Amino acid sequence: MAGTSDGDTGDYIDHPVRPYVMTSGRAYPSRNTIRPETLLVVDPDLRPPVTAGRQQRALLDMCRGMLSLAEAAAHLRLPVSLVVVIASDLVDSGHLSVRSAPRHTPPSAELLEKVLDGLRKL
Amino acid sequence: MVSANSDWPEREERYVSPTVAQSVKILVVGAFGVGKTTLIGSVSEIAPLRTEETMTSASVGVDSLSGLDDKATTTVAMDFGRVTVTPEVVLYLFGTPGQRRFWDLWEGLAEGAVGALVLVDTRRIEDSFEVFDQLETRTGMPFAVAVNEFPDAPKYDPEQLREALDLLPDTPIVPCDARHRESAAHALITLVEHALHFPASQKALT
Hints:
The complex is a heterodimer. By secondary structure, chain A is mainly α. In chain A, 38% of the residues lie in helices and 7% in strands. Chain A has a domain at 19-102: Orthogonal Bundle (Arc Repressor Mutant, subunit A). Chain A has helices at residues 19-22, 54-62, 69-76, 80-92, 109-120, and strands at residues 39-42, 67-68, 96-98. A three-stranded antiparallel beta sheet of chain A has the order 2-1-3. Chain A is elongated. Helix content of chain B is 28%, strand content 27%. Classes of the chains: A mainly alpha, B alpha/beta.
């Protein structure tokens, strides 16, 4: 085990291949509009790109239903930072759609009221 | 056809409802062992998920990690859950340790958030100081304090806590039992109500 876990519990899963190998050496995504909570869904009409690697295909398969980027990353057991890079490429090529608009400002009062309504029903 | 891989979402209900068109997030912040994942699990419609980032020495930057000299990498974990609050809106709850190195690593996580619910354990108040310092200096987002009431924890008057934690008069402080859905939901509601009024209170300060 190479490092220490900063979380509460659980095991660190090491990967035999360094993440940047899976992204052709790039550490940064092609777009700055994908956050952990961004909702992604695959375009069912498009086949995976012929050049798609194992991680790209796994992400497309995972997103056959709508999931946030963080959920997809957790299910795939890959770091969010890596999945952001992979997802950005697949959004650029049209294979993945972003369902939720990226948010750079705090949520509106109208949206906060909806959140409140939902939490009060819990 | 469901994948044989056990890590895959096995049932379609693991997916977000196709009616959802918007996602929002709340950060659940607090020191190690304070009950973040417990609180998230109490309200989440999915079993809490975990994702990890590896921080290498190159990303340490100017932050002091003295005492960790022999470690080339360290991992920072984030547990999270999901609540579909309306047919169109899904809320994510991201549980984060909230120390300085965490914000360095997860740049962008704070952006666009409703706010942060800070969980505090009164047996270890000093563990929270760095969390509050980072929230105030790095994110500027609204936050509320939930005091996770462990059975053997000393009881404090909210105003004593406010003084000990050096909080503003309008920062909500609520008692909370992270194990119980109603109590966890109440703490989150308190934060969102505070966030609704936050822009006005910010303007008053400047």
